[in-house]
Model the fold of this input.
Amino acid sequence: MDQTPSRRRFLTSSLLGLGALGALTKVTAASSPKPGFLTEAERDIPVVADSDVIVCGSGPAGVTAAICAARAGAKVRLFEAHGSLGGVWTSSLLGYLLDFDKPGFNQELVRRLRDRDAVVGTGVNGISYHPEDMKLVLEELCLAAGVTVHFHTRVVAVHKVGRRVDAIVTESKSGREAWRAATFVDATGDGDVGALAGCEFEIGMADACPCQPVSMDALLVVKDASKLTRFIHGSGSAVSKQSMNDAKKHLLAEIKRGGFDPSYQGPTIFPIRDNLLLAMMNHEYGINATDATAVTKATLNARAELHRIVKALRALGGDWEGLQIVATPEQIGIRDGRRIKGRYKVVKADLVAGARHEDSVVRATFSVDVHALTRNDPAYSNQGVKVKPYDIPLRALIAKDVDGLMMAGRCISGDFIAHASYRVTGNAVAMGEAAGVTSALAAASQRAPHEVSWQEASALLPKVRQG
Ligand SMILES: Cc1cc2nc3c(=O)[nH]c(=O)nc-3n(C[C@H](O)[C@H](O)[C@H](O)COP(=O)(O)OP(=O)(O)OC[C@H]3O[C@@H](n4cnc5c(N)ncnc54)[C@H](O)[C@@H]3O)c2cc1C
Done:
């Protein structure tokens, strides 16, 4: 039950927090600090409310998990560091849905976006959408499902009782607060909750990078987008892979004609609506997503580069007349974060073999897409791996080192190559749906997620699917 402030309980404990580069540090109340360290004073944190399911992060995976858990009957809270739902879809202005040809919430979302004329383009395997409509659709769906949303609220610590995750601690303008739930879902993309809970994790290719580059997108407007079709990816119904690659090549040549050599050698423009376009034209290399200083530097570089590119194209005049930036995102797009150790790890061999699992929550079909790790690498590559459609099992969504914690989206358990395929948003949504029904059932039956079979949990899917 929700607690009113006057009846709040308090949580006092040594909580686990994150130190430099995501390494785990213990926040202690020791009285004599080590040189170079400050010691945090021990304090009581109000336990604001109990829930059935707490979802951390509202990207494609988290927002889906929250909506589906609520539709399955759970009392759900959704915590988001930014001020909109959708994660990379909205806060990072992604603009394009991949591996989305799947049943359930994927289909429902496309239908709801289509209903408001907010999807365009029928790329080989993708659909463009308007990020502002996406924000609104997701907010309406969360409200309708009864999800309690907390914006501008970051998860900063985890409290455990034995192996079980008991509460998360958040920081916001309301201060430091604790929230209990029966089941938790880490959908922070970067696996913050799993790491805070003390789970093992990997980042990038080896233990801690090299990582895929981070990229800043931008919303653009131009006088007449119909004159730019040879530079635009995935517009029109007769689009082929060849024409999409040609569009990238033409755009790269055009940017160079304007006197600029972009950091990403496969620059892409997607159609959004009328003369509104979405551009992906930047790579920032060698960034560890858990290093805030490095991410800040990348953000400053990226935004400056986008302005330079747009200025160079506009200076060409002609069809580029009137080109300008409408918006750059509040969050630079992160491809690679922590991958939390689960009860199964999806690996390259699964992709090559087209693995099948009894507890499959989604069949992923997207190719391995490793963007250049350095400026000298090809813009992107499949690293020589040919993907056969493969299953992601529920076990890859359940933390191994603690109980009561699921993962959904790009922070599930997998290796670098597998992640480079399953990370796209159609799979994140399907994982969110699975985490939603499984966490709701676990909470309702007072079990941990690993004690719930996919056969049982998937029986809830018809209840949460709304066409
Ligand atoms: C530049 C770029 C281009 C891409 N292109 C495509 C594409 O064309 N099509 C496609 O389908 N996929 C694409 N992807 C991949 C895809 O966007 C991501 O893999 C996908 O968004 C993963 O979803 P997620 O929900 O796991 O994570 P995210 O979308 O990253 O969402 C995580 C959410 O958690 C929040 N959060 C993080 N930490 C905390 C915390 N401690 N407390 C509270 N909230 C927190 C974040 O603010 C965010 O809202 C691209 C990714 C990038 C970066």
Remarks:
- Residues 217-327 form a domain with the Alpha-Beta Plaits fold (CATH 3.30.70).
- The chain has a mean pLDDT of 92.
